């Protein structure tokens, strides 16, 4: 078997095979990305956690970091030229400062591409995260009979 190339989905899947928690897998992804992309992903992660202390980190789709609160808030994908934050309900969110700069044509998602050397308006991103949380909470409340997973890793559930 060949060794996974650092920073790839295959490498992240390999970390998942070890039984590592989602947070540990995201830490490993950041460490493997030993360039501006790792630093950027780590910075965005800190902003997300500060905006929503109750956020749940998961890893899906062969190693993509995902942040959830009553559903997916956003993902943190890394590409050669950008770190992309895709907001699951981005089209429904107000973006008064214009952070969304990618995936603008769809009816559901919106994304923020951060390129090397760029900075993100932290206050605006925190507001966007909090708006995404509010949208998910409202959608969950409007969907009777759905069970809420407090942590996908632990498998505990609250009654509706």
From TrEMBL:
Ranges of residues in domain YdhG-like: 38-133
Region spans: Disordered: 141-160
UniProt-listed SUPFAM superfamilies: YdhG-like
InterPro entries linked to this entry: YdhG-like (IPR014922)
Protein name: DUF1801 domain-containing protein
Organism, scientific name: Stenotrophomonas nematodicola
